[in-house]
Amino acid sequence: LGSLLSVPVSVSGRMARVVRSRCRGRRGRGEPRASPASPPLRCPRREQGNRGSARTTRATKSSGDFTTEVLKKVPLWIGTAGISSILLNRVLSGVAPVSDAGSSQSRADVIGIVLSAACVLTGLQWSSIKARTYPKVDQGGSLVEFFSEALEEDAAEEIQWCYDSLKASTPACSLVVFYKGKCVSHLGFADTSNACGEGAEMGPMCSTMIDKDKGNYIPNLRVYPGRIEFTYLPDTVQALIMQPLGDDGVMLVCSDTQRGFTKIDQSWIATLAEKLDVTLGGAQAVSGE
Question: What angle do CA 158, 159, 163 make, to 5 degrees?
Fold first, then answer.
């Protein structure tokens, strides 16, 4: 009798443990999970997403280059096909090989050969024109991630998002934000041998951009005389965009490639500057102002 009674007791005990574990699982899924502690004024870096976006960008660029090369050769193919078809028609139709001005067929063949020759020359000219490519330069200095203590967390996350977006879609390697005469953020490469971060000073060129309310693109910073103003940037920076943030600030976007920013990149940077201007200009975005 004891053995018979022990079986249902053990089974009921197992069922109770299963029910309790399931209830704990439901409560665990319903309760909010505590996020790990993170340092202040930091935004999580989406490196995996950036790498995926970079691979997608490179694949799209390679596909675009292939399509451009094919389109450049289309006139050459059309002209070659036109001349070949005219000669083949001349041979198979039994027309005399010597052109006769009084024959309509000869006049049509001459016009066709001229048009085909123009297509061949156009194709050869397009194929010989190739855009110069500039290599990517390894940056010196050190990687920094600076946010001013006066910057609110929401504004810092907004700046971090802008930097991640630029890294994923453009050849940007550094982002510096000046607001109301002070450096509030420096992300990317910096020349730590000089004053950078909070010690960086906004030079006269940046002030001019704010006064004019118009951005400036320097495609080759190494030969630009005014580069001595940017002591907080590495000497290996190749290109620079200075984009004003309304009437109170300016955003510097650096590239590791000469002429690395396209027209689309410049438009995207201008859009990000407008968005960042709204964030920094909001109430209590920068404390103490």
Answer: 120
- Please write the tens of the pLDDT for every residue from 187-242: 999 988 888 888 898 989 999 988 888 889 999 998 888 888 899 999 899 999 99
Owner of token pair 């103490």: 288
Given a contact cutoff of 8 angstroms between Cβ atoms, the answer to whether 187 and 159 are in contact is yes
**Residue whose token pair is 């006769």:** 100
State pTM to two decimals: 0.59
DSSP state of 21: H
Going by C-alpha positions, the residue among 149, 174, 182, 173 that lies closest to residue 287 is 149
Q: Are 184 and 197 in contact (CB under 8 A)?
A: no
First-residue to last-residue Cα distance in the chain? 84
Please return the burial class of 162, using the count of CB atoms within 10 Å of its CB with bins 0-12, 13-18 and 19+.
buried
Identify the helix (H) or strand (E) that includes residue 133.
Answer: none
Mapped onto helix, strand or coil, the DSSP state of residue 13 is helix
Coil vs helix vs strand at 26: helix
What are the DSSP calls for 182-198, one per residue?
EEEEEEEEE-TTS--GG
Burial class (CB in 10 A: 0-12, 13-18, 19+), 157: middle
Q: What is the CA radius of gyration of the chain?
A: 33
Q: Please say whether the beta carbons of 167 and 268 come within 8 A.
A: no
